[in-house]
Amino acid sequence: xxxxxxxxxxxxxxxxxxxxxxxxxxxxxxxxxxxxxxxxxxxxxxxxxxxxxxxxxxxxxxxxxxxxxxxxxxxxxxxxxxxxxxxxxxxxxxxxxxxxxxxxxxxxxxxxxxxxxxxxxxxxxxxxxxxxxxxxxxxxxxxxxxxxxxxxxxxxxxxxxxxxxxxxxxxxxxxxxxxxxxxxxxxxxxxxxxxxxxxxxxxxxxxxxxxxxxxxxxxxxxxxxxxxxxxxxxxxxxxxxxxxxxxxxxxxxxxxxxxxxxxxxxxxxxxxxxxxxxxxxxxxxxxxxxxxxxxxxxxxxxxxxxxxxxxxxxxxxxxxxxxxxxxxxxxxxxxx
Length: 336
Fold this sequence. Notes:
- By secondary structure, this protein is α/β, with parallel strands linked by helices.
- The chain has helices at residues 9-14, 17-31, 43-46, 49-54, 66-78, 89-95, 97-105, 134-140, 152-164, 211-225, 243-253, 268-279, 300-307, 311-322, and strands at residues 35-39, 59-61, 82-88, 112-116, 145-147, 169-172, 195-198, 203-207, 230-234, 237-239, 255-263, 284-290.
- The strands form 2 sheets. Strands 2-1-3-4-6-5-10 form a 7-stranded mixed sheet, sandwiched between helices. A 5-stranded mixed sheet has the order 7-9-8-11-12, with helices on both faces.
- It is globular, with a radius of gyration of 20 Å.
- 51% of the residues are buried.
């Protein structure tokens, strides 16, 4: 699946996550003439305009009409094309929700939605432009595959995986210059399989998107400062969720924290809690994210700190959960 795409250290800091996506679209367009791209007057902001510059005859700007764009993409897919549509996450998940639901998912159309400016990454634009409920919406749609990459390299793998697997995809990426998690695409990305970023036996932190880097930083700090062994999982695919990895974390560490730039209702935290409920085995558990509240206006790093989903917030949560007693003994035979 991986293309082996690499960039120098200078390139990595100069390219936003969306630009990795744009470059990958250009590569895919050269390989697959059936790919078309659609934008709702956000070609430059979402970087899908790079595809339009390379293949203008396969690029369609529908104007500020996200709902129409989704319906057009569904029709193109029914005609045998593979449409990639791109707009801000909040518009893709909310303004066009009915069309994604009825036109794309209900008909199981091969449409790939690349939703940019995810979470609170467009912090300065204000709460109306923060996508903190899109996981909940897209996760509930039958036939939808939901991915939230940790950085640019993982975005490359996610976009290629979307092309290689038929059906609706929602890929949520951030607005700007994410911290680098992977230095190339060749690290073993598998759709629907979590990536273990740090091994650990004391507690598991399951993170997604921009929170993955923060979780790794927290784990490294806690190892040196507190002597804690913190397992970190990059749950890049929220649907289908890697149930096996979650179950193993529950059984191995008995303490789990989820971290997401999203409302704690309906997203990663809820998905992990559902696995726990199905298992019938409890553990010490905490969900980090927006606590059923709207975010305020500010820089992304400041908003992450406010929500407690940066490294400092994760460190504090780990220390808190480590103090909790989950069971007097290790025998779970009577708990089901």
